């Protein structure tokens, strides 16, 4: 069953939103660079198409991403739906028996303080899971359209 989002799609326009997408049965798929790279490319495409720079962390069985509307017309919900659709096709096209869960978790970020909290939560997820000692050593964390280190220091993207 697909989760209904709290607001109509147009209410997400121009906002910053944190998303968590899980793989069906929590399958540990994102464990090698050659598996993650095509998904980063699709995330870049979605980010650019819908005017939303982002930070991301591909955990073995799920993805955390914050999409930040660059303008009042940025569409983070459409970006994540586009990403999920294109990567779902990628799984099928490559005959990989993995798929996304039917829905995802989203949280609208209403302040720079909440944004900073979400970014720190995401980058430290691999540390909490014991995958690395320092978040910066985790190879599947990154940013598209902004500088992650700058974002962590002052929560602003150029």
Commentary on this structure:
- The chain has 158 residues and is of the alpha+beta class.
- The termini are far apart.
- The protein has a single domain, classed as Alpha-Beta Plaits.
- The chain has a five-stranded antiparallel β-sheet, with helices on both faces.
- 37% of the residues lie in helices and 18% in strands.
- The protein contains five helices and five strands.
Care to give the gist of this entry?
The protein is of the alpha+beta class and 158 residues long.
Itemize the secondary structure elements and their pairings.
Blueprint: E1 16-22, H1 33-49, E2 54-59, E3 62-68, H2 76-93, E4 105-109, H3 112-123, H4 125-128, E5 141-144, H5 148-154
Antiparallel strand pairs: 1-3, 1-4, 2-3, 2-5
Helix pairs in contact: 1-2
Mean pLDDT, all residues: 89
Secondary-structure element order, N to C = EHEEHEHHEH
Distinct helical segment count = 5
Estimated helix fraction: 25-40%
What assembly state would you assign to the polypeptide chains in this entry? single chain
Radius of gyration: 15 Å
Shape: globular
The main sheet orders its strands as: 4-1-3-2-5
Q: What is the strand content?
A: 15-25%
Low-confidence stretches: none
The total domain count is 1
CATH topology heading: Alpha-Beta Plaits
Distance between the termini: 39 Å
Instruction: Look at the structure and name the CATH superfamily.
Output: Transposase IS200-like
Largest sheet, in brief, is:
5 strands, antiparallel
Structural class: alpha+beta
